[in-house]
Design brief:
Layout lengths: L7 E3 L2 H11 L7 E5 L4 H9 L3 E5 L9 H11 L3 E5 L8 H10 L3 E5 L3 E3 L11 E5 L10 E5 L14 H22 L3 H13 L2 H8 L8 H9 L2 H18 L17 E3 L2 E4 L3 H10 L21 H9 E4 L7 H12 L9
Parallel strand pairs: 2-3, 2-4, 4-5, 5-7
Antiparallel strand pairs: 1-8, 6-9, 7-8, 10-11
The chain binds pyridoxal-5'-phosphate.
């Protein structure tokens, strides 16, 4: 398994954050700094544990706007700040952490959209690193919280709640539906199974109990021991390269990365497009489905400094790089995508 022995395994990332916030003993009203583009899974744990959430602005590359971020740090002195590698893009966590530590602010590095092939140690300057396993691995639940050794004595508390078992049951149902959907052909069957998938209320159940943190299930532990994560990562990296080389730069804007060493893969291949609905319609006509994040991501207030983040929320799109896709699938996707009949695209 690609996580260090000091790692703590939770049922989900949001449960890990609840347990962490409580273990740190952050008093009610403690200031926490989050990026202006943030999922419910990150903001909800801090709000539920009584923290005061402040947002920092992002630039068009999904990097923090550092001058504004630095000013916020010095003015507000938050106890904790979260840094997200959006869509699996490798970003400069060292620069972020250095600034935070100058102000006594702890850092949570969020790697939920990245899958790492191996790690002997935590290998980050951040105080905590969070991985959410369900995003890219076929496990019913699971998240990993890595901590710097100085936090090893933190008392992370776990609870038991029947709703976790209900959540697991729904998630197993979702995994079965996904497997069946990929193994049978036919557009009608695909549509029916997709409807069934979206009817399963797993997310609602998770949101109803996440303030009572659970350990990762035995089933996910068993699965993790059997999965060839390192092979999955190198396969997905290969698919990313195909997109990088094949997708028209005129149609599909790219995000700048801070450097990638082939040991991490992304959730999908992220691009920026001028008209995402038109792209989705075009791809769906050819049975191709990508991913984007919008619902449950719009929490920052409508202020001019957050307009870039809000714009990115509307313009990003992730091409599929799932482990079950092969090279010819991706070449087909690239061919169709490059035929997308749109003239203009923001770079
Ligand atoms: C970037 C990011 N971090 C953390 C989380 C929360 O993880 P989990 O879904 O395991 O609670 C999510 C969930 O959407 C996410 O997208």
């Amino acid at each position: 398994m690609p996580w260090s022995p000091e790692s703590v395994y939770f049922a989900s990332g949001r449960e890990a954050l609840v347990a962490l916030t409580r273990a740190l003993g952050l008093p009610h009203g403690t200031r926490v700094l989050l990026p202006a583009l943030v999922p419910e899974g990150i903001i909800a744990p801090f709000l539920k544990t009584g923290c005061q959430v402040l947002f920092y602005p992002l630039d068009e590359n999904l990097d923090p706007q550092y001058p504004a971020f630095d000013e916020l740090l010095r003015r507000e002195r938050p106890a904790l700040a979260v840094f997200i590698h959006y869509f699996g893009l490798r970003k400069d966590v060292t620069r972020f952490t250095d600034l935070c530590h100058q102000c006594g602010t702890m850092v949570v590095e969020d790697m939920a959209h990245i899958l790492r092939s191996k790690a002997a140690d935590m290998n980050s300057e951040a105080d905590f690193v969070l991985h959410s396993l369900t995003k890219m691995l076929p496990v019913p639940d699971g998240a990993v919280l890595e901590m710097k050794p100085k936090y090893a004595t933190l008392q992370l508390q776990f609870r038991r709640d029947l709703r976790h078992s209900i959540y697991l049951t729904f998630r197993i149902g979702e995994l079965v539906l996904c497997t069946v959907r990929h193994s049978i052909g036919g557009r009608r069957a695909w549509k029916m199974l997709s409807v069934l998938y979206y009817l399963l209320p797993s997310y609602r159940v998770l949101m109803s109990y996440f303030t009572r943190p659970h350990r990762m299930s035995a089933l996910s532990r068993y699965q993790l021991r059997r999965l060839a994560v390192s092979e999955m990562v190198s396969h997905r990296c290969h698919l990313e390269q195909l997109y990088e080389q094949g997708l028209s730069p005129k149609l599909f804007g790219r995000f700048v990365e801070h450097g990638s060493n082939g040991e991490h893969c992304k959730m999908g291949f992220p691009v920026r497009v001028a008209d995402r609905s038109s792209l989705c319609r075009w791809l769906l006509r050819h049975n191709i489905q990508g991913v984007f994040f919008q619902s449950r991501w719009d929490f920052a207030p409508e202020l001019p400094e957050f307009s870039t983040a809000k714009q990115l929320m509307r313009e990003h799109f992730l091409f599929p790089t799932a482990a079950y896709l092969n090279e010819s699938d991706i070449l087909y996707v690239i061919r169709i995508a490059n035929m997308w009949p749109v003239e203009s695209c923001r770079p």
